[in-house]
Design goal:
By secondary structure, the chain is an alpha+beta fold. It has 2 helices and 6 strands; from the N terminus they run βββαβββα. It has a domain of 69 residues: 2-Layer Sandwich (Folate-binding fold), CATH 3.30.2270.10. It binds zinc ion (ZN). It comes from Paroceanicella profunda.
Length: 107
């Protein structure tokens, strides 16, 4: 079972209390962008086996969106952080590097 802690209200709960929102830190492209950029924004996802950064919503709690860093293979959660950032916080990246030596931040 995936256990997440909402960084907005501090509640820790099972994944059924939250709602997944897909991959985090996507670069958005809108009107005026190239077709290839817009297509990649809409459809291309990393879907890794291992460390992944995701968007989650505390659906049965405060209702706010946040980001989570977790392992898709083991369900280990490295940390959660507010959705208003464009990259994971350094302390979470450092925690991932301790737990997954050799891991590199995806481009
Ligand atoms: Zn919450």
């Amino acid at each position: 079972m995936l256990i997440l802690t909402c960084p907005c209200c501090g509640v820790t709960g099972e994944e059924t209390e939250f709602h997944p929102g897909g991959e985090a830190h996507l670069k958005r492209f809108g009107p005026g962008s190239e077709d290839g950029e817009f297509t990649a924004y809409l459809f291309d996802r990393k879907n890794p086996k291992g460390v992944h950064f995701e968007r989650w919503r505390h659906a049965f709690g405060c209702g706010k969106w946040f980001h989570a860093a977790r392992c898709t293979a083991t369900l280990e959660v490295f940390g959660t952080y507010p959705a208003q950032v464009s990259a994971p916080p350094e302390e979470i990246v450092a925690r991932i590097r301790v737990r997954r030596p050799g891991w590199e931040m995806p481009a």
